[in-house]
Specification:
By secondary structure, the protein is of the alpha+beta class. It is built from seven helices and ten strands. A hairpin with a 2-residue loop joins strand 9 and strand 10.
Length: 192
């Protein structure tokens, strides 16, 4: 597959870059493909690359010390994976697993930073894009924080009571442990 400036323009991180810069950057990107169930990277891996989904879908899965794994989100066409970890040189915060055949564009950290050094205006554009994403995440977290915790717990209980589209009555039994219920409801375990 040929990587063009048009394809890179679809990546929000690269909005506002000139056609020449995008064409040059495209020469340093590479295509990857994953089959369903294949792992792109594991939680805790070093982050040296960002990825852009051209086609397909992946899940971000967070593992915990007790062995539990929770799907944080599902990403698909035109979404970016791993840019914040790559830029900050931080370990990956989740594993990424393809849920279907997936095509990705990969850009390595050293190339990305080389372009930032050569073109300071790119750094400004990237900062603007990152600040927009940070603002969106902050608003989402704030919304979750101000939502009534008892309502979140009640919603979780109703979810656990549902079976085949109907809410069961009577005693609910579940294999959820307290810390897992707290995590699912977005509350501190002491709250339960």
């Amino acid at each position: 597959l040929e990587l063009t400036q048009q394809k890179l323009l679809e990546i929000g991180l690269f909005e506002g870059l000139s056609a020449d810069t995008l064409n040059s950057l495209a020469e340093h990107c590479r295509w990857l493909s994953l089959e369903s169930g294949e792992v792109l990277f594991e939680q805790g891996d070093e982050a040296g690359t960002l990825y852009f989904i051209n086609r397909g879908q992946v899940e971000l899965v967070r593992g915990y010390e007790d062995g539990e794994q929770i799907v944080l989100t599902t990403l698909g066409h035109n979404e970016v994976i791993g840019d914040l970890s790559m830029i900050g040189s931080e370990p990956r915060t989740a594993s990424v697993i393809a849920t279907e055949y997936t095509e990705l564009v990969a850009l390595d950290r050293d190339v990305f930073f080389q372009y930032l050094e050569q073109n300071p205006t790119i750094a400004t554009d990237v900062l603007i894009q990152l600040s927009r994403r940070l603002r969106e995440m902050t608003l989402q977290i704030r919304e979750l924080a101000v939502t009534d915790a008892p309502a979140r717990i009640a919603s979780l209980i109703l979810f656990l009571a549902e079976e085949n589209g109907r809410v069961r009555t009577g005693l609910l039994t579940t294999n959820f442990r307290h810390h897992r219920m707290a995590r699912a409801a977005g509350v501190d375990v002491e709250y339960l």
